[in-house]
Specification:
By secondary structure, the chain is of the alpha/beta class. It has two domains: 120 residues, Response regulator (Rossmann fold), CATH 3.40.50.2300; 96 residues, Arc Repressor Mutant, subunit A. It is 42% helix and 21% strand. The strands form three sheets. Strands 2-1-3-4-5 form a five-stranded parallel β-sheet, sandwiched between helices. Strands 6-7-8-9 form a four-stranded antiparallel β-sheet, covered by helices on one side. A three-stranded antiparallel β-sheet has the order 10-12-11. Helix 3 links the parallel strand 3 and strand 4. The N and C termini lie far apart (46 Å). About 3% of the residues have low confidence.
Length: 226
């Protein structure tokens, strides 16, 4: 598995590269955001490990730019431990978030987990059941595309996953933990608030908060606004 490490601290980079290579990964290291973007464009890796405190670009901007052009899994590895930073990075398209200092075994496990999820979501569904129509909204699971009133709405893989999961049983209440287990991983370590961040992005893109209704303190369900 090919891993791109975007990290400006040479000491952390050296130990991370050595540890991951000993675990069987092929690792490419770059020291700044622009080099990271160039590396992804030239030869997309299987997973990107992204620091946020880079010398040229903020890591959140790098995550946003990667996600704009690629579905490659992104694991943010950062010293920023505030919930705001974690939620924002996940909303921008990161698939996981690990706070420094970290154990290499946990890092390797996170890499394998996001890689498995990426592979599973890329498996096409049977063509005859790929499209689901919900009034003005159409969800195409085979192509992972969303259409509203006939116009495609661009969404990140995780936003699509949340909306598609809610649409499996329209109107049914889904707890945050259910959504995390289905869209992220059964062993998700991050905050449940990441679900709220993705729901906020979905509502914004669909132009009506009524598409995803919140039940305070419990979770969300798919709505049907007029």
């Amino acid at each position: 598995m090919r891993v791109l490490l975007v990290e400006d601290d040479s000491g952390i980079a050296a130990s991370t590269v050595a540890g991951l290579e000993s675990a069987g990964f092929e690792v490419q290291h770059v020291p700044d955001g622009r080099s990271g973007l160039a590396a992804v464009a030239a030869s997309p890796p299987d997973v990107v490990l992204l620091d946020l405190g880079l010398p040229d670009l903020d890591g959140q901007d790098v995550a946003r730019e990667i996600r704009r052009n690629s579905d490659v899994p992104i694991v943010v590895v950062s010293a920023r431990s505030e919930e705001f930073d974690r939620v924002l990075a996940l909303e921008l398209g990161a698939d996981d978030y690990l706070v420094k200092p970290f154990g290499l075994r946990e890092l390797a496990a996170r890499i394998r987990a996001v890689s498995r999820r990426a592979r599973s979501t890329s498996v096409p569904q049977p063509e005859q059941s790929s499209q689901q129509e919900l009034g003005r909204l159409v969800i195409d699971r085979r192509t992972q595309r969303i259409f509203l009133d006939g116009t495609e709405v661009a969404m990140t893989p995780k936003e699509f996953g949340v909306l598609a999961f809610l649409a499996e049983d329209p109107g049914a209440l889904r707890r945050r933990t259910e959504i995390l287990e289905h869209v992220w991983d059964a062993h998700w370590y991050g905050p449940t608030k990441t679900v709220d961040a993705h729901v906020a992005a979905i509502r914004r893109k669909l132009g009506d908060a009524g598409w995803v209704e919140a039940v305070r303190g419990v979770g969300f369900r798919l709505g049907t606004p007029q």
